[in-house]
Amino acid sequence: MMFVLHPGVSEKKINEFTQKFEKMGFTPMISSGTERTVVGLVGNTKILDVDDIVENNDIVSYGKRITEPYKLASRAFHPDDTMVMVGEKIVGNKIAGNQTVGNNKGGNKIVGNQIFGEGIFQVISGPCSVESEDQIIKVARAVKLSGATLLRGGAYKPRSSPYSFQGLEMDGLKLLSIAKQETGLPIVSELTNISQLDDFEDVDVIQIGARNMQNYDLLKEIGKIKKPILLKRGLCNTIEEFLMSAEYIMAGGNENVILCERGMRTIETMTRNTLDISAVPLLKKISHLPIIIDPSHAAGIRSLVAPLSKAAIAAGADGLMIETHNDPANALCDGAQSLDLAQFDNLMFEVKRRVEFEGKILGT
């Protein structure tokens, strides 16, 4: 259930309004848009009469029930696009800082490293796995020079085979931190178990991989932190299930969720997975969360990464996540789908052109 308040309602009156429902056992969620404030109620709202609440509260313009099971991730509750800040928060009343948002109607000051959301396009790049200091530093410097805005690297690797390389674990995270200090790129790495969380203090964006998309205990725990979460769609999950996983994180209090479409397992055997490009405009329609595409895992074939990346930009994605390695032929993980440094540089030339054509800003 959600209520749209009249413009200009004071914070005091909003607090008085929400406290009534807190005493009744509901969890009020406040979304402040560019023009109006929306109050959503989480709980068994069947006992509430929408019309009665509207009539008896002069600060309420109108109310309605949200029929989708994903309440907080729904655009019905949060009409404006969510801007996920990697670093600081959006504050103030003027556009300033090192990033500006194309559709920044609120005229906010932007402070921090990178922003995910409408008007900004981010490119996350790096190796599937961190293998050595020399490797990650070399890749980090190269992808930044080509235009990547964040560095990815796997330290903890959930693999189908127990005999495959499982990652350098904590040592891998330390090497990512060194690469971050060398290049200034924010880092993205996958968390596979909540026991690892303390090790991720220097990681800027925590990735929840496809295999953990429905690990609800893990989702609940990361909902308690405020760090941005990159949530990958499961191998065989529907869009509704995808959003319900995001809902678990948001219901815990962490609204900094970035969705990632990475392809699904279908009857097709010529590619590793099948990229659901239609997920981008559909998610844009029904959810306010930013959505990026991982073309590397979607195809599993190096030659398909560039065309799928271009399709993602045209479909309206907010970014890309591309596996890049300095020596793909000898990579310890997913070398067949990784671009080499020259291939990534060539792709970024095309990405920059197409992002500009779509009227977006490439993060810097």
Automatic annotation (TrEMBL):
Gene Ontology molecular function terms on file: aldehyde-lyase activity; transferase activity
Listed PANTHER family: PHOSPHO-2-DEHYDRO-3-DEOXYHEPTONATE ALDOLASE
Keywords: Transferase
Pfam families reported for this sequence: DAHP_snth_FXD, DAHP_synth_1
Residue ranges occupied by any DAHP synthetase I/KDSA domain in the UniProt entry: 115-352
Xref: NCBIfam families: DAHP_synth_Bsub, PRK08673.1, PRK12595.1
Domain DAHP synthase ferredoxin-like: from-to ranges: 1-66
Record GO biological process: aromatic amino acid family biosynthetic process
Protein name: 3-deoxy-D-arabinoheptulosonate-7-phosphate synthase
